[in-house]
Design a protein that fits this description.
Blueprint lengths: L7 E2 L10 H11 L3 E6 L2 E7 H7 L9 H7 L5 H4 L6 E2 L5 H11 L3 E6 L2 E7 H12 L6 E7 L5 H11 L4 E8 L5 E7 L5 H9 L3 E2 L2
Parallel strand pairs: 4-5
Antiparallel strand pairs: 1-6, 2-3, 5-6, 7-9, 7-10, 8-9
């Protein structure tokens, strides 16, 4: 799974000399919350709706409507945008993108290749990848099995399930700090009781 599989392509952009008012208008018209900032085709920053709200006059201030309408065009994107951009390439694996977001405490990564903006990927896109990994979009049953972290254990469980004519939609291994792991399986069946019984007969512990 790569960033290119989940990123948004052809994002709406804005220039550093554009106004906060124009950015707010773009976000409202396109129902988006972030805008890459380009200058002569080069990425120079990123502005989010939170950046704009911080720059916008608070409703609690004593500014009049006339003063607010005057101020918006005066505030330039370059004054409020984030200049220290963290980016990835389309070929970055999705889990690495997640680690980069976590380590930098950000919710958006710009995607570039050879200095050209290719798209952007957000926390919401990572949630979609997470859903795909677990196979939640497919109907079926979920089974979690506690196992020792031994060679071949997954193959033995898969063989048992296969012998019952049931397809495995997805497999996720969650290693536990105290040792061992949980295998989380999503199976193409509505009833796991027979599978549960057979696995328990073989000595496996069903967690849920």
């Amino acid at each position: 799974m790569f960033v290119r599989d989940y990123m948004s392509i052809n994002p709406v952009t804005i220039g550093p000399e554009d106004s906060v008012g124009h950015a707010l208008e773009l976000m409202d018209n396109h129902s988006i919350r972030r805008l890459p900032v380009l200058q002569n085709g080069k990425i120079v920053g990123l502005v989010t709706n939170q950046d704009l709200l911080k720059a916008s006059p608070s409703p609690a201030t004593s500014l009049s409507i006339h003063e607010i309408n005057y101020l918006y065009p005066k505030i330039k994107i370059k004054e409020v945008m984030t200049k220290d951009i963290v980016s990835v390439t389309p070929d970055t694996v999705i889990e690495q993108a997640a680690v980069i977001m976590r380590e930098n405490k950000i919710g958006t990564l710009l995607v570039e290749q050879q200095g050209k903006l290719m798209g952007l990927i957000t926390e919401s896109d990572l949630f979609k990848a997470f859903i795909d990994v677990f196979g939640f979009d497919y109907s079926g049953a979920r089974l979690a099995i506690a196992v020792e972290d031994d060679i071949g254990v997954l193959g033995k469980i898969a063989e048992t399930i296969s012998s019952m004519g049931i397809n495995i939609i997805s497999v996720v291994v969650v290693r536990k700090s105290e040792g061992g792991a949980n295998l989380i399986l999503r199976l193409k069946t509505d009833d796991v009781e027979d599978i549960r019984a057979k696995l328990e007969d073989k000595g496996y512990k069903i967690v849920e």
